[in-house]
């Protein structure tokens, strides 16, 4: 999907995807596993997205 066609996708990092179990992955990490390990709320930063946004600036 393209973020231009679905504006809500712009809220997700560039590396966001859904695995075969239906879990959200960010930077290749399963968000459900991270929430289980560290609790919630959990703030995640995706390095690829941060670098991309800095270059755009």
Describe this structure in words.
This protein is of the alpha+beta class and 57 residues long. It has one domain (7-56). Helix content is 32%, strand content 12%. The chain is built from 2 helices and 3 strands. The chain has helices at residues 31-38, 47-56; strands at residues 17-18, 24-26, 29-30. A hairpin with a 5-residue loop joins strand 1 and strand 2. The two termini are 24 Å apart.
Could you outline the blueprint of secondary structure elements for this entry?
Layout: E1 17-18, E2 24-26, E3 29-30, H1 31-38, H2 47-56
Antiparallel strand pairs: 1-2, 2-3
Largest sheet: 3 strands, antiparallel
Please tell me the total number of domains: 1
Uncertain runs? none
Query: Strand-and-helix sequence, N→C?
Result: EEEHH
Overall mean confidence score, pLDDT: 88
What is the number of beta strands?
Answer: 3
Whole-number radius of gyration? 12 Å
Query: Alpha-carbon distance between the termini?
Result: 24 Å
Q: What quaternary form is this?
A: single chain
Strand content: 5-15%
Shape: globular
Overall helicity: 25-40%
Strand order of the largest sheet: 1-2-3
- Per DSSP, the total helix count is 2
Helix/strand/pairing class, anyone? Answer: alpha+beta
Short description:
The protein has 57 residues and is α+β, with helices and mostly antiparallel strands. Helix content is 32%, strand content 12%.
